[in-house]
Design goal:
The chain is an all-beta fold. Helix content is 1%, strand content 46%. It is built from one helix and 41 strands. A five-stranded mixed beta sheet has the order 20-21-23-24-25, with no helix packed on it. Strands 29-28-27-26-31 form a five-stranded mixed beta sheet, with no helix packed on it. A hairpin with a 5-residue loop joins β26 and β27. The two termini are 41 Å apart.
């Protein structure tokens, strides 16, 4: 990647070509943003953006950012301090993986943070925190290990024990990825598992990992790591939780370095690996899958392809995160305007893309833009207010570092990311404060199904909210879906690691618990414009496999039933169950993956209105 950076082209309009009639920034400002150019470098094991231009820029918007209101009757938030505090405030070079809720015991939540109590970052240590009451309180459990280490991730085994990875020189002289397995949930008695070096004097660092389906399998966990300063990424498997035994490092085809990769596990135990390409495939995004617990993988599928002919185009940069909804892979990643020579444009609007094998179309052309920077004073359905990323550059973009998780019952997907704001701070280097935004969907197979992104963090006092992490699985009740997140919160924007001129501050690990009214999850209000009459539309697509959209219009807020029947009249699904739905145009997703091919009927009942339409499932 650092030999020749990304020059990808999505169907992407650069900021200099947007409409300015209702823009927050003038055309002259946007033209100047397009000239701000950075290149990635290493600051030890942290990645930093170094500015290449000398353009003087007025960052102040002509109009204030539009207010994105969260419907507090549907969504609410609770915030807790985990106890993590650090002067070392660059938690990841990619999408963060610092929280794990045990799906078999949702009271148990495991959190890690890379910390240092010294402004010289010595020592830099992974601290492990544990909650046994579903995030109401957290306790510090252990330093893992108590010697210099960094870039930690956490997950857990099938018996509920924490599995932590980071990189350290413990047990040798070369810094390398190592794993630590706890003896019991929240105990803090860790066994060090050392895979050794990739080559004689080269250690792979920046690990990402996923445990296999059960500790009874030969392979206990799969992981990926890469070599500092080289475009080489490797996969490996740990075969014991009590001894340092591994299957051995295998190079990933043209994989990039420094956390530009992600692993996840499906319901049947399959393991997915997604990564951003390097050298030959710079900025392209790939997915491959293992059905034998990480021993072998399928040939990589290119799920996003750059336009190599474009000299300023969009492509994968750093943030990438994978999960599974049952056995369907769900991937999110950022795309950022870049050049073929290895430079990127943090002042231009960019997007978060979503990919899955369940999306219509064919690879590499079926990604959806689910979150995008919007320069207008009225933000679009999938937009967040645009502000250029300025100042200390931790290789951020206006929207970046997406993470994804699902509900424990696999009904809902949650995506969060960082968003630059027009608020700035910093004593020497004027730097953007950031917010965290979130969206959610059920199948995610249509853009309209993804909810309008909403702000997760508090807004007063102004703080820098960075490095969101979502648990891969999240608990729910019959009435509420919950999202378990962590984020780093700081009073000074930008990292002290890459921007020491602005001075140190104690960044804190914050746990966020998002509550979503389950009765509103399936219904997406597309428009609040009140129609004259009730209406049930024909589903689209039709025929379909396995998901389709059903839209209906309500002239007033109404109690709604929406049921699906087979040809014999048997009820096979209830999509809305006597729920009060707002007036306007609404949409529901129907996933028929568990049903056989055939003709089905769906019936909408609202007040005195009732209508039925036919749809065809073809598998």
């Amino acid at each position: 990647m650092f030999k020749k950076l990304l020059s990808l082209a999505f169907i992407f309009t650069l900021g200099v070509n947007v409409l300015f009639a209702n823009g927050r920034y003038t055309k002259e400002q946007m033209d100047s943003f397009a000239k701000i150019i950075y290149k990635q470098h290493f600051n030890g094991d942290a990645v930093v953006g170094k500015r290449l231009d000398n353009v003087k820029v007025d960052y102040k918007p002509v109009y204030n950012a539009p207010v994105i209101n969260t419907d507090n009757t549907i969504i609410s938030f609770a915030y807790r301090q985990t106890g993590g505090v650090s002067f070392y405030d660059l938690q990841s070079n990619g999408s963060t993986m610092q929280i794990w809720q045990d799906p078999s015991n949702p009271d148990a939540i495991h959190v890690v943070m890379m910390t240092s109590a010294s402004t010289t970052f010595t020592p830099r240590i992974t601290k492990y925190f544990y909650s046994s009451d579903r995030g109401n309180t957290f306790s510090f459990i252990a330093d893992v290990p108590p010697t210099q280490n960094g870039f930690c991730v956490v997950s857990g085994t099938s018996d509920g024990n924490a599995l932590i990875m980071n990189h350290a020189a413990e047990g040798g002289t070369v810094v390398r990825a190592q794993a630590y397995a706890d003896a019991a949930p929240g105990l803090g008695s860790f066994t060090r598992l050392d895979p050794g070096n990739v080559q004689m004097t080269l250690g792979a660092i920046w690990p990402r990992m996923v445990p296999t389906q059960t500790v009874m399998l030969t392979n206990k966990y799969a992981f990926v790591a890469s070599i500092n300063g080289q475009d080489f990424t490797y996969r490996n498997n740990g075969t014991s939780l009590s001894a340092s035994t591994f299957t051995g490092y295998v190079q990933i085809p043209d994989g990039d370095q420094a956390e530009t990769y992600s692993l996840a596990r499906g319901a049947d135990g399959r393991i997915g690996l997604a990564y951003i390409g390097s050298t030959i495939d710079q900025g392209d995004v790939f997915f491959m899958e293992s059905t034998d617990n990480g021993n072998t993988y399928s040939t990589p599928i290119k799920v996003f392809n750059r336009n190599e002919a474009d000299t300023q185009s969009a492509g994968g940069l750093r943030g990438i995160c994978l999960t599974y909804q049952n056995n369907s892979p769900k991937l999110v990643f950022e795309v950022v305007a870049q050049t073929p020579s290895g430079s990127y444009f943090p002042g231009l609007p960019n997007q978060i893309l979503f990919w899955s094998t369940s999306l219509p179309g064919a690879d590499p052309n079926r990604c959806l833009q689910i979150i995008q920077s919007d320069t207008n004073t009225t933000v679009g359905p999938n937009g967040v207010p645009f502000a250029p990323n300025v100042g200390v550059n931790d290789v951020f973009a206006p929207v970046c570092r997406p993470v994804i998780g699902t509900s424990a019952n696999n009904t809902v997907m949650y995506v969060a990311c960082m968003v630059a704001t027009s608020n700035t701070g910093g004593a020497v280097d004027t730097t953007s404060f950031r917010d965290i935004y979130m969206t959610f969907a059920t199948t995610g197979n249509s853009l309209s199904e993804w909810r309008k992104p909403f702000r997760v963090n508090t807004t007063s006092p102004i703080r820098d909210w960075t490095y969101p992490s979502i648990s891969p699985k999240n608990d729910q009740t019959t009435s509420t879906y919950f999202v378990n997140m962590t984020a780093q919160v700081d009073s000074i924007p930008g990292s002290f690691v890459n921007g020491m001129g602005n001075g140190p501050s104690n960044a804190r690990s914050t746990y966020i618990r998002v509550s979503i009214d389950a009765s509103k999850v399936n219904v997406n209000n597309l428009s609040t414009e009140v129609p004259n009459n009730f209406m049930l539309a024909q589903n689209f697509p039709n025929p379909f496999n396995p998901s389709t959209s059903i839209r209906f219009a309500l002239p007033k807020s109404s109690s709604v039933m929406l049921n699906v029947y087979d040809v014999s009249g048997k009820l096979v699904a209830t999509l809305i169950n006597n729920e009060v739905v707002s007036a306007g145009l609404n949409e529901v997703q129907f996933n028929a993956s568990s049903l056989p091919s055939g003709i089905y009927f769906y019936t909408l009942t609202a007040d005195n209105f009732k209508d039925t339409k036919k749809m065809i499932l073809v598998k």
